[in-house]
Design brief:
160 residues, alpha/beta, Maf protein, 5-stranded mixed β-sheet, 6 helices, 5 strands
């Protein structure tokens, strides 16, 4: 694992633990990499409750509760989808905090208006919801995933 990601994950774990908070993740384009980063830290079982890797729209809808209307009208790579994913996993798993990702990691998958490197992220802390668009320079799939994980963990750290 990237040393910078591990360092941020250690800080996230410490902050969650000190606040007696728990977290869950709902990941599409990151494929569980955020959950892996958080759980790479010893003692993460105190704060990490679980994860759903929701690659398909069917799982986003049936498991996480993303409205089919949102998926049909805005697509999987959208602000509304990641917000619904984060809220859905928070509810499903019963955590204080949640993060969600959906995007185009590459090399394929780009559509007009959504090039490779387009990633939406959402963070829920209690009732507070933060949604951000990341527009990454496409430096390859692995780099896009790592950059997304760093951004999500850094944003989470600011919010908890």
């Amino acid at each position: 694992m990237d040393a910078e990601i591990h360092k941020i994950a250690e800080e996230v774990n410490a902050r969650l633990r000190s606040g007696a908070l728990t977290i869950a993740t709902a990941e599409s384009c990151t494929g569980g990499a955020i959950a892996a980063a958080i759980t790479s830290v010893a003692g993460s079982s105190d704060v990490f409750k679980g994860s759903v890797v929701a690659y398909s729209n069917d799982v986003k809808h049936r498991v996480l509760g993303v409205a089919q209307e949102i998926l049909d009208s805005e697509g999987a790579v959208s602000a509304a989808t990641v917000e619904a994913m984060a809220v859905g996993v928070q509810r499903l798993i019963g955590s204080h905090c949640a993060v969600a990702t959906s995007g185009i990691a590459g090399p394929g998958g780009a559509v007009p208006g959504k090039p490779v490197g387009t990633v939406w992220v959402a963070i829920v802390v209690g009732d507070k919801r933060i949604v951000r668009l990341l527009t990454l320079q496409d430096k390859g799939r692995e780099n896009n995933i790592c950059t997304t994980v760093k951004n999500v963990l850094s944003l989470l750290l600011k919010e908890i």
